[in-house]
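Is this the right way to post structure tokens for a design question? Let me know if I should format differently. Anyway, here goes:
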């Protein structure tokens, strides 16, 4: 643009985000992501499954990353900057890459990072560019803390100040550099890169460590600044009134209206795994809510809506998440008389509303659905298998059923079947075979699926040569039988390394069901049935009001806030009629077609008598490292993992959970990232940045945090969905909630404040401080009488927290005096409470309730 045009530009001015004493530079102009799938030298790998859950995923570095890093570090560091001559504004063409995308404003929505994280199924080179301007009141030498996962090259006022290239997959690294700031405007350019391997944290951040008050100043077209700021504020304040929409329109509330210039919104909805769809909605002037979709259009999902609004040539994008439940199958579900009827309805639901994948296509064929649509789904799935996309092992297993049931049906051409066969013969079945893919092998669910696929492929094509390994199908069958024997030995001895996980129990189930139905080896079939029975044991024992409500070895936001869409709730509904019918396909197509039925005796776990209490303690994982405790009545359930690595960095472990209903659920965690819909593992709600110490006895759980000062979040918080309670009230450091006859109390030693703005409005309790203690107490009308009586009795516990000694004492109205401290014994009435020695099957007690 000309100098005349530039002089007429408006500016967007922002204060840097405050993190402690530092100023985070998080408003930028950014390019799109330039992506390029990359091929590497096919290589084998080594390693044991599940060790990464304790030691970290970095112990399994993919060989393709080594090759990528070596290449990146040989590149000239100044290879980008000479492409740019004028500072960009929104809509300007990007110069320097083929198929250049226009520059866009990056609005961080309280994210300290410049972030474009996501999921790439095959190894992909990512490259992006960013630019910002800092106004400094004085010329000085600035200290900047640079953080990135991949590499970051940074230029200040035309001079390169760093080429920081740690390239540690999903492990943020940092460096402090010096840079000269002039008085007035300073132009900063950045190029960041990484190799995407499945889930990829693709981001960087720049923190100013000095004392000057800086201003971020970005040029935009004339007369737009006020409207852009107004639109940003409207999106920042927007929220869903509930995290669940059931048989209704999904409405987003707008406390602040969008500016009049905005008359339509582009919406992308769905997720990376199941695909996305796009639509445009038109809005009226001063609109106070947006109708995004109807639940019966979305189906059963935790769904993300990405909204993009345009203020002239300035596009603003923000993500919102909620749970959608399609009620169109509920009436039919209530009329199903037995497991066969439930299996039939589940297949119909999946065929009509399931995510587009191989399992859904099989459901369509079984229910006389559209054959051409099913074939398109199958071919798309086969393409993913051919490309060795990550998670393709979850879907390859369905091809063996397809081959058995439909090979001679005449529905598909010989060319179709030739392609299916070639995809099976060309697959990579384990890490001892060469590959340049980024498939994940090292968790128990993936290992099971790879071994299952190898077994069934070897059985089916015993005399064929498999092109990737050069081995015969018979050799693959023998190897798979040996590997599965070891897998079952470990599983039946250790249980689930990713204990109780609603995300991964269904993945295990699809492998086990195919072994049970297809394996020629009778011992493997019986072990698969035994393992399936154990999964249903865990599901039924820890299910409250139709959803698995407990602590999880791995969790995602979609699982914690989307329990009606979980595969476990529909598995239980199919098996016992307790739970929810939904369109989850991966496990449930196989379950609905199989002749497997879980033990009828487990039905008694699901529906307790009015006076009954269920106590379940067990241990899972290598060496029994997960000591699990679950306490349940009709009105509530409370679960914890006991004293799991307190004070250590967390991953996706969900360590404490209270349920009054599938919607009225309460938990506490230390957020690993402060962006509320982030892609991290762990993230805002799922997992912990730093794990707490946790203990529990029956209806009371205690948590204590000791968080290092280098963590982004110097606070902890609780999910406390006020919209799901019959009533709730605050008394000093306590919050109390009632749902019908079930009660909950939650206490933070450092006090709490309720979030009143944005996506977690009226559902997030925030407690400041690196050292803190929380109390989670469950109760009921039967045990305490009225809600007021519960409040008064619990408040009388008078907890005292010593944040130096890290000890907590209280006098519970039912259990009596409690003394406990971080990494110190847990005493109730001077008796030490210890949870261990229960084993995989655990100890299950049904008790009569006593006051």
């Amino acid at each position: 643009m000309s100098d005349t045009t530039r002089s007429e530009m408006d500016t967007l001015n922002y204060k840097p985000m405050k993190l402690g004493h530092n100023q985070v530079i998080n408003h930028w102009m950014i390019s799109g992501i330039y992506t390029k799938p990359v091929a590497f030298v096919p290589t084998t790998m080594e390693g044991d499954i599940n060790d990464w859950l304790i030691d970290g995923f970095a112990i399994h570095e993919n060989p393709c990353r080594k090759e990528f890093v070596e290449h990146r570090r040989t590149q000239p560091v100044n290879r980008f900057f000479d492409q740019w001559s004028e500072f960009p504004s929104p809509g300007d063409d990007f110069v320097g890459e083929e198929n250049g995308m226009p520059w866009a404003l990056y609005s961080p929505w309280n994210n300290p990072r410049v972030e474009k994280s996501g999921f790439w199924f095959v190894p992909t080179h990512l490259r992006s560019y960013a630019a910002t301007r800092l106004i400094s009141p004085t010329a000085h030498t600035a200290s900047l803390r640079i953080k990135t996962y991949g590499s970051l090259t940074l230029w200040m006022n035309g001079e390169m100040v760093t080429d920081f290239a740690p390239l540690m997959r999903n492990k943020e690294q940092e460096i402090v550099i010096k840079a000269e700031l002039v008085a007035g405007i300073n132009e900063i350019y950045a190029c960041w890169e990484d190799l995407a391997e499945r889930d990829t944290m693709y981001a960087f951040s720049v923190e100013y460590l000095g004392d000057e008050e800086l201003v971020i100043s970005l040029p935009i077209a004339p007369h737009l600044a006020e409207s852009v700021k107004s639109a940003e504020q409207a999106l920042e304040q927007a929220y869903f009134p509930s995290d669940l929409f059931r048989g209704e329109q999904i409405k987003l509330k707008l406390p602040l209206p969008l500016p009049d210039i905005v008359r339509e919104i582009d919406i992308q909805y769905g997720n990376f795994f199941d695909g996305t769809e796009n639509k445009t909605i038109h809005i009226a002037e001063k609109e106070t809510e947006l109708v995004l979709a109807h639940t019966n259009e979305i189906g059963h999902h935790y769904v993300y809506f990405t909204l993009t609004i345009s203020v002239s040539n300035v596009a603003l994008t923000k993500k919102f998440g909620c749970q959608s439940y399609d009620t169109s199958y509920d009436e039919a579900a209530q009329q199903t008389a037995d497991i066969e009827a439930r299996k039939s309805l589940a297949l119909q639901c999946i065929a009509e509303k399931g995510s587009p994948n191989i399992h859904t296509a099989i459901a369509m064929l079984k229910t006389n659905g559209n054959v051409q649509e099913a074939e398109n789904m199958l071919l798309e799935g086969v393409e993913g298998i051919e490309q060795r996309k990550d998670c393709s092992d979850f879907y390859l297993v369905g091809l063996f059923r397809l081959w058995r049931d439909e090979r001679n049906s005449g529905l598909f051409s010989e060319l179709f079947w030739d392609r299916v066969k070639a995809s099976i013969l060309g697959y990579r079945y384990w890490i001892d075979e060469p590959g340049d893919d980024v498939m994940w092998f090292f968790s128990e669910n993936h290992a099971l699926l790879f071994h299952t696929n190898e077994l069934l492929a070897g059985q089916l094509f015993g005399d064929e040569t498999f092109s990737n390994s050069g081995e015969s199908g018979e050799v693959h069958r023998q190897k798979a039988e040996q590997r599965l024997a070891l897998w079952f030995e470990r599983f039946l001895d250790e249980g689930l390394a990713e204990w109780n996980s609603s995300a991964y129990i269904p993945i295990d189930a699809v492998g086990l069901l195919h072994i049970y139905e297809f394996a020629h080896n009778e011992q493997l079939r019986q072990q698969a049935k035994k393992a399936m029975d154990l999964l249903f044991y865990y599901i039924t024992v820890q299910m409250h009001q139709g959803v698995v409500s407990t602590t999880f070895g791995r969790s995602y936001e979609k699982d914690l806030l989307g329990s009606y869409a979980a595969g476990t709730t529909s598995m239980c509904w199919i098996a016992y009629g307790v739970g929810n019918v939904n369109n989850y396909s991966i496990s449930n197509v196989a379950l609905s077609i199989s002749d497997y039925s879980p033990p009828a005796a487990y039905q008694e776990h699901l529906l307790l008598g009015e006076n009954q209490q269920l106590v379940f303690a067990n241990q899972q994982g290598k060496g029994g490292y997960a000591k699990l405790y679950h306490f349940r009545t009709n009105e509530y359930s409370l679960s914890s993992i006991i004293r799991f690595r307190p004070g250590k960095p967390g991953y996706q472990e969900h360590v404490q959970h209270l349920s009054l209903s599938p919607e009225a659920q309460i938990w506490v965690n230390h957020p690993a990232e402060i962006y509320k819909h982030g892609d991290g593992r762990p993230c805002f709600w799922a997992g912990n940045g730093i794990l707490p110490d946790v203990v529990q006895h029956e209806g009371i759980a205690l948590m204590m945090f000791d968080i290092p000062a280098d963590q982004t979040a110097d606070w902890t918080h609780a999910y406390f969905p006020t919209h799901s309670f019959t009533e709730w009230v605050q008394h000093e450091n306590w919050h109390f909630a009632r749902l019908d006859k079930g009660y909950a109390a939650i206490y933070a030693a450092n006090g709490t404040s309720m979030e009143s703005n944005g996506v977690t409005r009226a559902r997030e309790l925030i407690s400041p401080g690196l050292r803190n203690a929380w109390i989670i107490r469950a109760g009921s009308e039967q045990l305490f009488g009225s809600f007021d009586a519960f409040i008064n009795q619990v408040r009388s516990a008078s907890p005292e927290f010593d944040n130096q000694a890290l000890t907590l004492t209280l006098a519970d109205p039912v259990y009596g005096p409690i003394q406990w401290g971080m990494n110190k014994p847990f005493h109730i009435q001077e008796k030490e409470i210890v949870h261990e020695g229960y084993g995989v099957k655990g100890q299950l007690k049904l008790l009569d309730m006593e006051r």
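Format looks fine. Someone answered above. Worth noting: The chain has four domains: 3-220, 225-325, 340-414+444-453+496-605, 612-848. Residues 462 and 473 are 4 Å apart (CA to CA).
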